[in-house]
Structure formats: structure tokens, C-alpha cells
Amino acid sequence: MKQNSSLFRKKTVDQILRDANSAENGGLAKILGVRDLVSLGIAAIVGAGIFSTIGVASYNGGPAVSLLFIFTAIACVFTALSYAQFASTVPVSGSAYTYAYVAFGELFAWIIGWSLILEYAVSNMVVAISWSEYFTGMLKGFGIVLPGWLTVNHETASDAFAKLQSAGAAEMSTYERFAAAAYEQSPVIGDFHIMLNLPAGLVTLLITALVYIGIRESRTASNIMVVLKIGVVLLVIFAGAFYVKPENWSPFAPNGIKGVMGGVASVFFAFIGFDSISTTAEECKNPQRDMPKAMIYCLVICTILYVLITLVLTGMVNYSELKVSDPLAFVFEKNGLDFMAGVISVSSVIAITSALLVYQLGQPRIWMTMSRDGLLWKKFSKIHPKYQTPSFATIVTGFVVGIPALFFKMDFFVDLTSVGTFFAFILVCGGVLYLDHTGISAQSKFRVPYLNGKYLVGALLILAIAGLSIYGQSVVDEWKAMSAMEIVEHKLLTIIFWITWCILAVMSYKYNFSILPVAGILTNLYLMTELGSSNWLIFVIWLAIGLVIYFSYGYRKSKLA
């Protein structure tokens, strides 16, 4: 019994604040205000999502993807309110990791911290590679062409070359032909072709150096880049509005609800950056007051921008043409506005750079907090005496992101990043229910507005089941056509979703839960059901590796042990 209870040992709010302020850890510079926090949030959210993945989402779902942005934003608002309550209660740099330590205990805290490595480090690899594509495209616009073998990873190039040999150039996209040519022209040692994505590695190195030097310099750079890219996004919206053809919005949802929901990973990837605000809590002048405001402000601003951008994109060209990596530049080229396309290409480099910056800020601060608790090597919590940043953790983050970005293909990890993030979001919403139930919420400077869900959660469950039986005949038929094995393989998360709703309905009746955190849990869990099962398999493997590290080091070295 002692073994089990020690796995779920919890830290009190007072303990966490005492550890954060202890002399041995050094202090972080407290310089961030609401405007800076909003800027960092926008920097993370308006990045690779709006300049890249929005095209694929629109291709799959048509103009109706604008509604998916609203639905995903609502899920994020429920979550952001929960984050804001935790940030006002526990104003330290651990994000969801710290919040889980208070609400659910050490094992869950470790799992969340390990999941956040996926959210920050792996997503930054994707963002760095996306940055490289835009950067090399921008250089071409100025007549500078880098050798192909310095801009493409080995796997992509060798796959493209193999396709060239088997299918011929006629069956290949422009990018695949470029990658195959880069493979042929690359230097060879023995039988091995030397290929690397040099721009992705270099930009990670430069951003890591900026983050290492200090939060003040990072804040200034982020603020400048955010002003530039918001200006460009507004330019796209207002200039593009004159070229919108309303007939392109019909049909509004050409592939039905399935097509719209197929863009969940891409759309959600665009939003995950808002929780990076919480990782800078210790560098905030008044976190209890400013963090809740900043989270809500940046979500509202970014949702409006995303919805307007989606409507403009799908209005300027037919949705079926938007399966491109640079949709904003593409729609203006398609309408003969090459100058605008050039401006967008340059600004997209700036936009994605700012997203890189925020993610590189977030990851070291989570490692620093885990190290303070004894779950990671002590060196991760070392604060630089001059720059007042987590120096060792920042350097390690640079290597963890930069080396894979140089050599590996990372498209797949967009979905995988979303799995880890959904998991963290659900536990944060559940944590607020715990704070309310135990009375810890009395210490919160900001609280999620309380709306009694005693009868509402159950009533909504009954309405949902009734609606499904009346209007969801196609869904029912799909389930009937599947074998038990296929249901387990493809629909297990959907089953978990309905079981969770039933459990929450009973618990809401018993404990008078607030409806908003419950809505956060259910909307995030529903969005999770739309992700592929293969991503879940790899996420489980990732968790297993994390648990091996925890039981071999963190469990024994924990300060609570």
C-alpha cells in the first residue's frame, strides 16, 4: 500500500512556491506583463499552423473548416480557463506538469511532463523543418539557390529517388522531383549519400542562443516579430477579401462532417501554443492577475484571425486546390498577385521563427521544474548567474530539437504532438474539479466561473444519445458493419469518451461539479477520438520509455521520497 501511495504523493501549493523561491535554484528575471504574455501566446499560435497546415485542413474539409477552428477554440477556452486558475494558484514555470503534481500526484505529474516533451520538443522539430522550406523558397525569390542536399533529409530524398526509379517523373510532385535530384547530386561516402536540412539546424541553433542569453531579449524579439506577422495576416485578410468569389464557398462542407473533422490534428496543432504562456509564470511580474487575461486575450484574437483567414482562402480559390505547403502565398499567386505572394513568403519566415522562439522558451522551463522536484538530473534546474535563464536545460533543448531537425523526416509528429497535448489538457481540466472539490480553489486569485452541472451534464448526455439515435443513422450503420476486433482497433477511444461522459454525469450529480471544466474534458476527449490509432500506439510506447526513466531515476531521487 505504501508503494502505491508513494506513486501518487502530492505537493502542496506552499511547497511548490517555497521550492521555486529557494536560494539554491537562483531566480528568474520577472519582467513580463500582459502585453508580453499575449505576444508570446500569439507568437506560438500564429505560426506554422496559419502559414502551412491550414491549407491541408481546408482541402479536407472545405470552407466548413472555419467552424472547426471555432469548435477547437471553444475546447481551448474551457482548457485556458482551467490553466488560468492553476496559473493564479501555482505561479511557477512547470505548466501542466506542476498542476498535475498538486491535483493527481507524482506519477501523473511525470506522465504529463513526459507528454509535454512531445508537445514542445517534437513540435519544434516540425516547425524548424517547415521554417526551412519557407526560408529556401524565400531565398529562391532573391535568386539564391542552396544545394538540394543541404536542404532535404536523407529519408525524404531516398524515398523520392526510389519512386523516380519505379514510377517515373510523371507520377511525382514538384517537390518529390526536387528531392530525387538532390539525392542524385549529393556527396557520397561509400554507398551513403550525405543529406541534411542545414537551415532547420542553423535556425534552431540561433534561436537557442537567443533564449539562452535572456528572457528580456527573447521578449523583445518576439514582440517585434508578432507585430510584423499580425500586420501581414491582416493584409492577407483585407487584400484577399476583394478577390473572394462567394461561389467558392459552395458546397460549404463538401466532404461532410468526416472531412471537416479530418483536419482536427492540423487545426489543433495551430492552437497548442497557448499553454506555453504558463511556462513563463516565474518571469511574469504579476502572474495571478496577468496570466488569466493573457490566455483568454490571445485565444480570442487568434480564433478570429484563423476563421477570417480560412474564409478568405477558401473564397479566393476552390478548396480542392489548397493541398499545398504555402497556402497563403499560393492563393495570391493563383490570382496573379505575385508581389503579395512574395511579401507573404518573407513574412512567413518571420512568423515561424517567432513560434520556434516560444517553444524553445517553454521546454527548458518544464525540465527545470521537474529537476527541482528531483525527477530529473539536478543540472537541469541550474540558473545562469548572469542571464537568469535555465542554461543547461536550454542547451540540451537545442540539441534535442536541432539534431533530429537536421536529419529526420518529421511530418508524422504533427498528430503525435496533438495526442500528448490533449492528454495534458484533459488532466488540467480534471485538476480544476479536484481544486474545487478539496477547497484548494480558495487560494486561487482567478477561478473558472462556476456553473452548477449537477443535472446539466446528465441532461446533455441524454440529449446527445437521443440526437445520435435520431440523426446519426449513418454512424450507427458504420458500427454495425464492424467486427468486435475492428471496433476495439478503431473505436476504442469513442467508447472511452461515452463511458467518461457517463462517469462525469454521475460525479457531477454527486459533487455538484462546475460544467466548464467538465466541458473541457469532454471536448478535448472528443477531439482525441478523431486522431489515428497508429499515433496512439506510438504514444503508448513513448509513455513506456518515460515510465522506465521515472522508476529507474525519478521515483528514487524525488524530493518527496
TrEMBL record:
Pfam families: AA_permease_2 (PF13520), AA_permease_C (PF13906). The chain crosses the membrane at residues 37-59, 65-84, 96-117, 194-214, 226-244, 256-274, 294-319, 339-362, 387-407, 413-435, 455-476, 488-506, 513-529, 535-555. It is found in: Membrane. InterPro entries: AA/rel_permease1, CAT_C. The keyword Signal does not apply. GO terms for cellular component: membrane. It is a multi-pass membrane protein. Coiled coil: none annotated. Residues 515-558 form the Cationic amino acid transporter C-terminal domain. Its main location: membrane. GO terms for molecular function: amino acid transmembrane transporter activity. Signal peptide: none annotated. Keywords: Membrane, Transmembrane, Transmembrane helix, Transport. This is Amino acid transporter. It comes from Dyadobacter psychrophilus. The lineage of its organism: Bacteria, Pseudomonadati, Bacteroidota, Cytophagia, Cytophagales.
